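tool_call: predict_structure(chain=1)
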Amino acid sequence: MLRIQPTAQMGWDSISAIVARLLAAYPVYSILLSILSIIALSAGLVNIRLEPDIRKSFSPEDSDAGYETRVWLEYYGLDIYPERAFCIFTAKSENGSILQEEALKDIYTVDKRLSDAVGLRDGDGRKNCDPLCDLNSPFHLLAVNF
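tool_result:
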């Protein structure tokens, strides 16, 4: 016979044992209850809208920031903001320099990987990073000498 203790006196092992016995005794009901719970908790996600531009969460469309965004996108002929990724490289020590050959090679490798990741073309043939794809051109001019 299963002896149930008051919940306040039960440890995690006791609670886990009771849950395990219930699941083992009624597997079909447990699965059905799990599925119904998932459906009930997911019902609110039916009309969810995922926003690709996080700035829209901070300012309404009719604000000055919304107007500036629309003008900027129109100027570059874009529908959405381009993907961006920024990395700032610094020297390891206070008196060090990143203008050493080995450091520049490492930075160039990281830059190449990031450029390849965000430089993919979408269905319209435009790169995802447009118009910022050439943002690191000055670095490439410096790194070409190494």
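agent: Residues 91-145 form one domain. Proceeding to next step.
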